[in-house]
Amino acid sequence: MPTPPASGSPQDRPPLEPIRVLRPRRTDALAELFKEMEQGTGDLEAVAVPDPRSWDEGETQELPPVRTDGPGAPRRGDRFGFGPGLRRAAVTVAVAAAALIGFGGALLLHARNNDATAEPPRPTASAEPTATASAASDPDGAGTLREGDSGPAVTDLQQRLLRIPNIYDNGSTGGTYDATLKAAVARFQLWYGIRGDETGVYGNDTRLALESRTATGTG
């Protein structure tokens, strides 16, 4: 036999009722929204809509119903007409544009770097030293003597020619390369077959031939 519950136990207390919390609705914000909508429509211009009964049904055509299943049904994400092919084309165009922009930027950067690191133009040599060098390099060889020259080298030439018979008889040894000495040099070149130098010019070939015939101890 169950024992009666003791007085003051939880079973003697009345059951608790659920508490309901009432929150006031924000009607002010809703009223302000409707008020703004009414004010915005006040500035709009009324447009006359033609009576549908006046339309010519012969010029209209009923569109076929859209299939929601099957192979011809539009896929998800294609409701705006952007199919897979169009999306791929758009992505390809975007990638190509980005590549062109990057390539153009690289070219501009490379051109700027080249301009910054380019060496300043070096001064070119003047034409005067070149002309002087070409004049110094005589085609008849270094130390060539010709009409108008003077000095010890001309005196040595005159003394050597005096030792060759019938070439420079009774010639001067004053050290001046005059017309008489030029004629003697030309005569020596002609008689001994010297062709490497200009006529009447004491060049390398003429010098070797004359020195070989007027060496020390020979007459």
UniProtKB/TrEMBL annotation:
<keyword id="KW-0812">Transmembrane</keyword>
<feature type="compositionally biased region" description="Low complexity">
    <location>
        <begin position="115"/>
        <end position="144"/>
    </location>
</feature>
<feature type="region of interest" description="Disordered">
    <location>
        <begin position="1"/>
        <end position="20"/>
    </location>
</feature>
<feature type="transmembrane region" description="Helical">
    <location>
        <begin position="89"/>
        <end position="111"/>
    </location>
</feature>
<feature type="compositionally biased region" description="Pro residues">
    <location>
        <begin position="1"/>
        <end position="17"/>
    </location>
</feature>
<dbReference type="Pfam" id="PF01471">
    <property type="entry name" value="PG_binding_1"/>
</dbReference>
<keyword id="KW-1133">Transmembrane helix</keyword>
<dbReference type="InterPro" id="IPR002477">
    <property type="entry name" value="Peptidoglycan-bd-like"/>
</dbReference>
<feature type="region of interest" description="Disordered">
    <location>
        <begin position="115"/>
        <end position="153"/>
    </location>
</feature>
<keyword id="KW-0472">Membrane</keyword>
<protein>
    <recommendedName>
        <fullName>Peptidoglycan binding-like domain-containing protein</fullName>
    </recommendedName>
</protein>
<dbReference type="InterPro" id="IPR036366">
    <property type="entry name" value="PGBDSf"/>
</dbReference>
<dbReference type="InterPro" id="IPR036365">
    <property type="entry name" value="PGBD-like_sf"/>
</dbReference>
<feature type="domain" description="Peptidoglycan binding-like">
    <location>
        <begin position="150"/>
        <end position="210"/>
    </location>
</feature>
<feature type="region of interest" description="Disordered">
    <location>
        <begin position="37"/>
        <end position="81"/>
    </location>
</feature>
